[in-house]
Amino acid sequence: MIRLGLLMLVTLLGVFMTLDRFGQGDLRTERRPEPAARASAATDAGAPSLTAPAAGTLPATPPVDIVPAASQTPERTQRFPGPPLEPSPEYAGATPEAAQVVPVDGPVLYVTADRVNMRAGAGTDNPVVASLTGGSAVQALGPTGGEWVQVQTAEGQQGFISAQFLTSDAP
Question: Where are the domains of the chain?
Fold first, then answer.
C-alpha cells in the first residue's frame, strides 16, 4: 500500500515538473490578430465625416427620387390558407348548443387566498381542475364542515377546494 502511494506521488511530481518546464507562456497569443483601431460607425459604413457643411451648400429642394413608404410596403397575403371548416359527419345538421349550467341551491362561499387550486377530488393528490383568484364566489354542493368542500363556479365547473381557503363573508 505504501509503495502504491509512493508511486502515485512520484508520477504526479513528474507530471507537474514536466508541465512547469514546458508549459510556460500562452501559446495562443502568437495566433491572435492585432486589435483594430477604433473608428466610428459612420466611418465603418463609408460615410463622410459628420462635420457641419459650409453655408449655402444644402440644396433648396429635396431630391425627387423619394418614394413614399406606403408604396414600398407589400400587401399582406395569407400564404397557406387552409380549407374552410366543416362539421364532422355525425354533427352535419346540428347547431352548437350553449353549455347548460345547472343551478344549485347551496351556500355561496368566497375564496380567501390570492390563488387557490380547485381539484377533481378531495385531496392534494388529485389533478387541478381550475385555479381561482381571491374573492371568487363559488357555490357549495355538499357539506361545508369538512376539510374539503365540493363547489361549483359561476361558469359551471365543479371541483373540491380546501375549506381553509373558503369563507361565507363577502370580500
Answer: 108-167
